[in-house]
Each structure stands twice: as structure tokens, then as C-alpha cells.
Amino acid sequence: MRKPLRRAAALLLGSFLLLSGCTVSDVLQSYQIDPPPAQVQQTGSASVHYIDVGQGDATLIQTAGKNILIDSGTRASSDILLNYLKAQGVTELELCVATHPHEDHIGGMPDVINEFTVKELYMPTKTTTTKIFQSMVETAQQRSVTITPAKVGDTFTIGDASLQVLFPDREYKDLNNNSVTIQLSLGGKTFLFTGDNEKESESAIVSNFGNALKSDVFQAGHHGSDTSNTAGFLQLVSPSIIVISCGEGNSYGHPHEKVLQRFDQLGAAVYRTDLDGTIVITIDNGTLSVQKGA
């Protein structure tokens, strides 16, 4: 399916995490989210689902009968995510990516691992001692899920999808700046996912990849925060579609007005889960179509 897994590294990472213990409690926020609909009607050959999980990220990629999940929203939205995945016919996930160990990105991952057959959990080497992170790792170990530390240059071929890992190139002090960055090629189109990477990381990604960052669809960095989505980075990505995953009335003010202005200057079509609900982009014969409120 992909380059040989670094099983030795995975085992070392798992052993370290079990010994680290848990000393920090997570602060939870609850978000009112409408229940998911029945299975989305699709006519295309592949689809990318930006699932409305409130103030968090969860993206499902479906291609050739295979499923990939990037992030899993909050613990509070876990049932919403599980129900949505089931409605789309998901029983097995070839790959789950935990972009970085913040609760709004990995909160639902223990439940996902328990509910579905997960073949591989892919995440940065940067760890934390929060209960939700510990739960994710221990659940993966209990379910015999392969845990693979992220490395620049890793590639995955799943169904008709090709995923290239662009970041992190090393460990950074701030958890956000360790976010796994993936460029997805699917049906002749490219999608870019940067997690919560901020200015420092965006600068490093630009230095390493430059014009190769050009993508048709971009999931706004850090839910549309102005600590991310720098002008220079956006100019290189130059997407025609931008999707912002954020919660309605969130306390962070995401997406920030300055960032929306930058998106407007790009001339990109902007979709937001707080306003549009779950957003499904279908790829059919090289053409993108967008369904809002899915």
C-alpha cells in the first residue's frame, strides 16, 4: 500500500507513551451540531467530506471503495462523526491521520478506532500527556493498530488517491507547528491539508516545496486563524476552493476577518462548516462539484 512501515519506530513510540502517564486534564467545550443526514448521494468517482464537527477538523476521503480519515473532531462531537461515517458506508479505514495531538483534532479518534477496523494510525512524533492523547494511543495498541510516526517524504497510495507528506520536517516546540501536512492527488485534482500549522511552519513548508504547493482545494489552516494562512503561503497554494472547518459562534473568532480578506483576494470560492454544514467535494472525470449542507 505504501513505503515499508517503520514498525520499530512505532513500537518505540508506543512504549514511550505508555510510560509517560497522564498529568494534564483536557478542557472540553460542547458545540450544538445538527445530526447527520442519510448517505450523501454521489455520482463522482471519489469524494472528500469536510464533516461539520463544530470547532474542530474531521475529513473523510473516499476512493475506489477505500476510506481515509484526517482528524476526528472533539470528544463532544464523537457521536456525530461516527454516525456520519456509518451513513457513508464506512466499516474500515485504510489510514487515520492525527495531524497533531490537540483535542479538537483527535478527540473522536479513540471511538473511531474502537468502532471501525483501522489499519494504520499516522501522527507526528511530537507527543503530549493529555488524557485524550493517551487514550488514542492505548486504544490503537489494544486494537493492534499500527502506529506510524510521520516523516516528510512518506507517500501513500490508497485506491485512486496519492498522498504525499510535506511536513513536519522536525519537532517544533508548539504542538500546532508539528501538524502533519498532506497534499492529496485524486482524480487529477490536488487537495492540501495543513492542520493547525502557523506562520513558522508555513514558512518552512514554502522553503521546502515552493511552487509544488499549488493545489485546487485548500482546507484553511487552523480553522481560518490569522496566525496561519499567510499571504505568501496562500499565493503559492493559489486554490480555487477553500474550505474552513470551524464551529458556529466559536470563542476564538475563527475565521478571522483578515484571513477572509486574503481568501477574497485570491478569488477562491469559500465554504464554511459553521455556515454551510458538512461540505462534500466530488471529483468526476477531472471536474469538482461541491455539495453544501450534506
Quick synopsis:
This protein is an alpha/beta fold and 294 residues long.
Separation, N- and C-terminal Cα atoms? 30 Å
What do the pLDDT scores average to?
88
* Content-based structural category: alpha/beta
Strands of the widest sheet, in order across it, are 8-7-5-3-2-1-16-17
Shape: globular
Instruction: Tell me the helix content.
Output: 25-40%
**Total strands:** 17
Strand-residue fraction?
A: 25-35%
Indicate the radius of gyration in whole angstroms: 17 Å
Q: Outline the biggest β-sheet.
A: 8 strands, mixed
What is the chain-wise order of helices and strands?
HEEEHEEHHEEHEEEEEHEHEHEHEE
Low-confidence runs of at least 5 consecutive residues: 1-44
Individual helix count? 9
Explain what this protein looks like in three dimensions.
- The chain is an alpha/beta fold and 294 residues long.
- The model is unreliable at 1-44 (pLDDT under 50).
- The strands form three sheets. The protein has an eight-stranded mixed beta sheet. A seven-stranded mixed beta sheet has the order 9-10-11-12-13-14-15. It has a two-stranded parallel ribbon with strand order 4-6.
- It is built from nine helices and 17 strands.
- The longest helix is centred in the first third of the chain and has 14 residues, at 7-20.
- Helices cover 27% and strands 25% of the residues.
- Helix 4 (109-115) runs parallel beside helix 5 (131-142).
